[in-house]
């Protein structure tokens, strides 16, 4: 069931954010104000009822003074491997100049190239080789 995977990621995210908020000695209202989100919306995130965008997660992480990448991992946006080896994903998600739709489109295209290259190692080797006349 697809929703259970998303629900578990969102639930653990909410628990994590609440734990961080309580540790920072911030009320729900204080964190909502600092992150620029509504109090009810933040409450829904903490209770696992909403899955926020990467941009909202970045705002919350900034307000909590914690790593946005750690929050992305808790939200299921990044895996642990991507945090250390996936600078492309981190860069795209962290770029405030892009809209959420643009970020998702870029990540989708990037993922499709990776999948294509994994499925066809010959194509990957050919794209890694310099083009004729290049040095």
Automatic annotation (TrEMBL):
Keyword Amino-acid biosynthesis: no
Pfam families per the UniProt record, alphabetical: HTH_3
PROSITE patterns per UniProt: HTH_CROC1
Ranges in a coiled coil: none
Domain HTH cro/C1-type: 17-71
UniProt keyword annotations, A-Z: DNA-binding
InterPro entries per the UniProt record, alphabetical: Cro/C1-type_HTH, Lambda_DNA-bd_dom_sf, TransReg_Diox_bact_type
GO CC aspect terms: cytosol
A GO term, aspect molecular function: DNA binding
Keyword field contains DNA-binding: yes
Protein name stated in the entry: Transcriptional regulator
